[in-house]
Amino acid sequence: MNVNGKPCRTIWPTADNQAVEIIDQTKLPHIFETVRLESMRDAERAIMDMQVRGAPLIGVTAAYGVALSMQHHASDAALKATCDMLLKARPTAVNLRWAVEKMRAFLSPLPDSERAAAAWQEAERIADEDVAINESIGRHGCELIRAMYKKKNDTVNILTHCNAGWLATVDWGTALAPIYKAFDTGLSVHVWVDETRPRNQGASLTAWELGQHGVPHTVIADNTGGHLMQHGRVDMCIVGTDRVTARGDVCNKIGTYLKALAAFDNAIPFYVALPTPTVDWTLQDGVKQIPIEERAAEEVTHISGLCDDGQVRSVRLTPENSSAANYGFDVTPARLVTGLITERGVVAADATAMQELKEKEAV
Ligand code: MRU
């Protein structure tokens, strides 16, 4: 996708293949700044501090983290320590585990002397694969938007939550990929962007990237979606996910479940877009089994934004003595999900369809 008209990914190797660069997403939308990651520790910190975030991008950053580590120490012990450390960076998005285990399995049989170069190539391959997967998700999801457009013969209004756009992946995004495809083919679309408290990934990141691409959108306070749905102002919802279980339960940014309930009550299709590495085939019951990240209370008690003097500042919202809880994700049961948009096609969120999905090739 483009930044100021120029193609850009969220992560890329430096020319000397000694480091990677990322967009610092904590600074957007007010400041576009890139950061150089030179070590596994840098990659770990970027994930924990959410300079990079979004399930697929977390996975790719971890893969590069392994590659950066192998440049310095490539023994079995170093590989194990690196993987174990990166696995703890964030708990909910399963793509982290998927990418780290892929790197571990790829590198383990190789002699130490070959690991550094091989790790770098494998991380690049995983990054390129993410782009191809998301492009494919975009094609499949675009057909759903096209069908809605044909039925309505007017602008398709799509509600999304958090940021599952290109900033959450290497490129294209998951939930936003179908929207970019639809927009690029001339279909009239408009996106309702949930602000997504507490970190406001919708208001800051989704709004920014849609704006960069010229897609019409409106930012709404998190509690607005139900009202819009009751008044026929939402035609479909498309969200991303951090982990989908083998029976189709969907874990995504906190607040997704409430939007799915409102969509169900108003008979509005609720789609979830995901690359298949986001499926955790070891789990069934998402509510009971998926670990939900709890982050610092400050993300709830404070908010940051651009002040009139041009400085970005953080201010307190709550009384000093009020405690705050900060659950990062919730789980939407499969019964509330109309369909899963994957690189292998659109499938039902149920155990049988998921099993078929596992055996299918990307199309
Ligand atoms: O806490 P974040 O910003 O990493 O949460 C991101 C989300 O919840 C996304 O919807 C999800 O990771 C899918 S990204 C394609």
Structure overview:
The strands form 5 sheets. The chain has a 7-stranded mixed sheet with strand order 8-7-6-9-12-17-18, with helices on both faces. The protein has a 4-stranded mixed sheet with strand order 13-10-11-16, covered by helices on one side. It has a 3-stranded antiparallel sheet with strand order 3-4-5, covered by helices on one side. The chain folds into 2 domains: about 1-130, Four Helix Bundle (Hemerythrin (Met), subunit A), CATH 1.20.120; about 140-360, Translation initiation factor eif-2b, domain 2 (Rossmann fold, 3-Layer(aba) Sandwich). It is an alpha/beta fold. The protein is built from 12 helices and 18 strands. The radius of gyration is 20 Å and the shape is globular. Strand 10 (about 245) and strand 11 form a beta hairpin. It has helices spanning about 40-50, 55-70, 75-85, 95-105, 110-150, 175-185, 200-215, 225-230, 255-265, 285-290, 300, 350-360; strands spanning about 1-5, 5, 10-15, 20-25, 35, 155-160, 190-195, 215-220, 235-240, 245, 250-255, 270-275, 280, 300-305, 310-315, 330, 340, 345. The site of 5-S-methyl-1-O-phosphono-5-thio-D-ribulose (MRU) has 17 residues, from helix 2 and strand 11.
